[in-house]
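Weekly puzzle thread! Below is a chain. First person to post its structure in token form gets bragging rights.
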Amino acid sequence: MSAIDDRLLEILACPEDKGPLLLAGQDTLYNPRLRRAYRIDDGIPVLLVDESRQGDESEHAELGARDRFRELLRVAPPDEAARAVLGGVLSHGPVAVRIVEVEAYGGPSGSAHPDPAAHTWPGPTPRNQVMFGDAGHLYVYLSHGIHRCVNITCRPAGEGGGILLRGARVVAGHEVVDGRRPGVPAERAARGPGNLGSALGIDLSFRGTDVLDSSSSITFQPDPVPGDLIRTGPRVGVSRAADVPWRFWTAGAREVSPYRRSPRAGRVTDHAPW
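Winning reply:
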């Protein structure tokens, strides 16, 4: 969660150039135009030029990259946002996974990208409220009461959208994952959305985490897959909008889950993921 309220952040301005500020971690507001950083003390921004500091080159570059990626998630259609997430690395503590399979989901009826298969379809509820917030946050939900499924939100605040992380390759913390998924072969440790959540140790308490905030306990580092290595097909297990090709995976990745069509969606030719 943000160190300060999102609504407050929208109206705060740099006292020097009167422009908007970015939240950089839990304790800093940053002006990328002047490379000036202001601290946050116990949730209270200290917007005094005399008490600010200059950001260094690496800090400026990192903040700029995160801000550009968040903006991409906000403005791109859900399918393009999903392609951008594919290949990125999601980290939680000692465990890190590279995303090899995702699904895009849009918004409710009347939105720019209406999607009856999405959790956003009924409009905002206590369960899906995070999906209607800013892009780049975790939406975590239980499937069948046991599987912890992890999504990264997309689209502008108020519209609703998300990217389900369906499969990943463990790239760090193998011993920890082995403890969480004992006896499971490496290529299956984070194959499928519930297994991915278990491998990373993510539960419902992490709903709303800003994964583009470097100070968060869970972070995401984009590393897009070249377009010629991306494959696409219909989403797994949905009964509505079942033929929309909003599932994306990295060609040849053994961690990709097999395609299973919902029996309520009618019959089509099976789609193999590789």
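Puzzle host: Confirmed. Bonus trivia for everyone else. The helical segments are 6-11, 57-75, 78-85, 174-180, 193-200.
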